[in-house]
Amino acid sequence: MSQFTGTGVAMITPFNSDGSIDWGSLKKTIAHLTNGKVDYIVVLGTTGESATLSREEKQAIFSFVAANNTAKLPLVAGIGGNYTQEVINYFGKFDLTGYAAILSVSPYYNKPNQNGLYEHYKALNEASPLPIIMYNVPGRTGMNVTADTTLKIARDCKKIIATKEASGNLDQIMQIIKYKPAGFEVISGDDGISLPMIACGAVGVISVVANAFPLEFSNMIRYCLQGDFAAARPLHYKLTDIINSMFVEGSPSGVKAYMSEMGICENNFRLPVVTVSDGLKEKIRGMIKDL
């Protein structure tokens, strides 16, 4: 877990206006994150619009990022789904050379009960070629992975080394941190509450905002991990309004609006994701100037 301590970035996937992958901007994004001193990169999570990419495109992105990872940052591959056997099949089909772990979101839409969630991750644990970071994001999946279920998975599934917790429920998060077995860690999945989560014992964050502001956000996380919350708080509050603006009209619409204004990528998406409103774009321009 030491290589997944600190700031991981749920990296965007840049597109051209015709919907094709913008490889030049993807390379520029990797360099931007590297120069911003993030600790690791998560490729093709939700922020990477993985739901709109074919298996062939995903493989091409996995390979491109590995080939252009000049700083040799740890890489995490986003491979998840709501059909357990299909996820297992993907494990065998993707060439994950250069990757250190897999991030796998809990099944979405079909809303399995807690035993179904446990059996899903147990099956992934037995089949995975790499360590797994499980991902609980009930706002997107429709089903919370409870503290009890997470702890049972942590105890029984030794390849599952951490959970990315985006439930927003600090009581649940503290229960996991308090009772987790050795070797299993909690990673924040919410930029806005990363500071209090680390104060409670989380080991870092997998961030959206760090796509645009990698240095500021990763510095804040480093201060937190050092226990210097007096230094971390000003950076935290400097970024809170920016974080809120990135999600008010959906993600990754918000973060790409920032990155487009900063000249890192174009403000393009694949449907059903669309750009933010003109009013929010104007607000974003002002917030960039203020920062």
Record the SSE blueprint.
Elements: E1 6-10, H1 23-35, E2 40-43, H2 55-67, E3 75-78, H3 84-93, E4 101-105, H4 114-127, E5 132-136, H5 138-141, H6 147-156, E6 160-165, H7 170-179, E7 185-188, H8 194-200, E8 204-207, H9 214-225, H10 229-247, H11 253-261, H12 278-290
Parallel strand pairs: 1-2, 1-8, 2-3, 3-4, 4-5, 5-6, 6-7
Domain module count: 1
Q: Characterize the largest beta sheet: strand count, sense, and whether it forms a barrel.
A: 8 strands, parallel
The secondary structure category is alpha/beta
Shape: globular
Oligomeric state: single chain
Annotation field: number of helices: 12
Low-confidence regions = none
CATH fold-level assignment: TIM Barrel
| CATH 4th-level superfamily | Aldolase class I
Spatial gap, N to C terminus = 33 Å
Give a brief outline of the structure.
The protein is built from twelve helices and eight strands.
What attributes does this structure have?
TIM Barrel; 13% strand; 291 residues
Task: Explain what this protein looks like in three dimensions.
- Helix 3 runs parallel beside helix 4 and helix 4 packs parallel to helix 6.
- The chain contains 12 helices and 8 strands.
- An 8-stranded parallel β-sheet has the order 7-6-5-4-3-2-1-8.
- The protein is of the alpha/beta class.
- Helix content is 46%, strand content 13%.
- It is globular.
- Strand 2 (40-43), helix 2 (55-67) and strand 3 (75-78) form a beta-alpha-beta unit.
- It has one domain: Aldolase class I (TIM Barrel, Alpha-Beta Barrel).
- The longest helix is centred in the last third of the chain and has 19 residues, at 229-247.
- The mean pLDDT is 97.
